[in-house]
Amino acid sequence: MKYAGLLLLASLCWGSNFIVGEGLTAYASPVTLTILRYGIAALCLLPVLLVTEKRLLPRKKALLPLFLMGITGVALFNILQFTALASSSATNISIISTMNTLSIALFSAILLHERLRGAQIAAMLISTAGVLLVVTEGRLESFSFASGDAWMLLAVLVFGLYSICSRWATTFVSPMMSVCYSGLFGVLLLLPINGFQVPIHRVDAVFISSMLFLSIIATIVCMVLWGIGVQHLGATTSGLFLNFNPLFTALLAFVLFGEHLTWPQAAGSAIVIGGCAAFSLFTKKRGRLRSAPALQKRTA
């Protein structure tokens, strides 16, 4: 029960991430926000690594996957997500983000040749139908949706690639070191794009507190809570708690801004969460996915 509570707390923080991120888009560009988020997180993690792991530098074999994590999970994913939040609701973005689990499975099948059962494919299609209901606001015949939703769908695909790179990297380094150095690589990649500057429209208490929340709570603390949960409850069971993210986002949007769920959002959420939960359960029955060393062998 204690570990379930930790996973719920992590889900609450991740759900808050979309609300906070939506507010931050008024202060700076997606590139600047990404640089600040992971720059602060990496600076906080370096002394922690020195104390807990007695080393600061990763092994040479980890550099390539860490660099790829920086490109996909830090630079591309965050820029796409912040861009999405600038033109869509936090609730929609959080619902679409539940497809991350399915994106991971899709790229595992493509890159690692992990087989998907018919039941798993059916669950993926059900979740996709739920997302379509949300992004089209129930008007499936017109098939038009906000540009922010399209950006987030692209971010979900990028997240699948990032997760594969993360599995590869963590065969050489700890999850904490992988977050730290992928963040550093991502920041180094983005700084030239921003002209080695971090322009901010205005700086106030809201901006500072929001930025610290994203950098420390949503990036570092959530990672620790998630790691503890996975260690004690397993990856599949822990993955089910990610489905609470959009529920917490919707709840916070209602409490803070008075936003109500529309019927397409409510129905789509139920379909997406049900499909993702079913996919996780089918995966659990099938057994654990092939381990990351499979990727290591293919890329050796």
Automatic annotation (TrEMBL):
Q: Which residues cross the membrane?
A: 31-51, 63-87, 93-112, 119-136, 142-165, 172-193, 205-228, 240-257, 263-282
The membrane topology noted for this protein in its Swiss-Prot or TrEMBL record is:
Multi-pass membrane protein
Q: What is its main location?
A: membrane
Gene Ontology annotations for the cellular component aspect, listed alphabetically: membrane
Give the keywords, sorted. Answer: Membrane, Transmembrane, Transmembrane helix
- The residue ranges of the EamA domain are 4-136, 147-279
**Compartment list:** Endomembrane system
Which family, according to UniProt?
A: Belongs to the EamA transporter family.
- The name this protein carries in UniProt is Transporter
